[in-house]
Amino acid sequence: MSLEKYKGIVPAFYACYDDNGDISKERTMAFVEFLIEKGIAGLYVGGSSGECIYHSVQDRKDTLEAVVEAAKGRIAIIAHVACNNTKDSCELARHAESLGVDAIATIPPIYFRLPEKAIAKYWNDISAAAPNTDYVIYNIPQLAGVSLTMSLFDEMLKNPRVIGVKNSSMPIQDIQMFKRQAKMNGKEIIVFNGPDEQFVGGRLIGADAGIGGTYGVMPELFVKLNAMLEAGDFENAHKLQDDINEVIYTMCSGVGNMYAVAKAVLKKRAGLELGGVRAPLLNLEEGDEAVVEKAYQLVEAAVKKYC
């Protein structure tokens, strides 16, 4: 099977709400169109950036349906389907496959510390619910509390639908380790760099593509950054990564949640109204308007400089 369709910049899609805080089909579709116009390779729907932990099963179905409808097959769609139980996760996996997504993805179950055998069964059960769809393991130990160990990875590589890892662990060498471990098992995989601040380092050490939570604010900058690396322009890639990181750290400096800041920046950049964030995440607080304005100005300056 070809993994080429996954290579490039894959924004982690933001939840789009109406004025009552419910999922908005119209705003979701408008955001999809904005991102496609910027040259992205795909979308990662229903993950951390999509506030999935605070969404119902129906919320997640509604979002994915709107994304698929808007995308019209123009880009790859990866649907994160993990819930904190197998039943709901399998329901979302079946739903995602029925819509024709390219891949599904999952974090491990959180809260209870399960043995690797239980985690592997959870993942394989979800994969079995979408037997004709590629499968991506999402490794984000700092939030899930569970790491993708090499022994667990070896077990999952026995599943022919497993085609890659979205790696959001901070040790950058994990990317290289997953690539090597897959080769030792006779398998080629795709590894997505997760930490946006490490995109250049992740790609240089072996990541094939990137999935990131801040790509949506400045997609053209990450598209340009990836193109620089492909062309071997490492000097300018280093400079652009530094400018991108200033945006990220600025967005994280507010009192409100970073995704509330991100959505406010998008409203300034493109007139997109995506709503706030879902409680218990904090929406913009007093003083955050200055953070939004600074981040907006930094993005626009970088776009003018590099694009």
What does this structure look like?
The chain has 307 residues and is α/β, with parallel strands linked by helices. Helix content is 49%, strand content 12%. An 8-stranded parallel sheet has the order 1-8-7-6-5-4-3-2. Helix 8 (199-205) links the parallel strand 7 and strand 8 (209-212). The longest helix is centred in the C-terminal third of the chain and has 19 residues, at 288-306. It is globular.
Strand order of the largest sheet: 1-8-7-6-5-4-3-2
> What distance separates the N and C termini?
34 Å
Order of helix and strand elements from N to C terminus: EHEHEHEHEHHEHEHEHHHH
Class from secondary-structure proportions: alpha/beta
- Mean pLDDT, to the nearest integer, reads 97
- Total strand segments: 8
Shape category? globular
Strand content: 5-15%
Number of helices: 12
Taking all Cα atoms into account, the compactness measure Rg is 18 Å
* Major sheet attributes: 8 strands, parallel
- Overall helicity: 40-55%
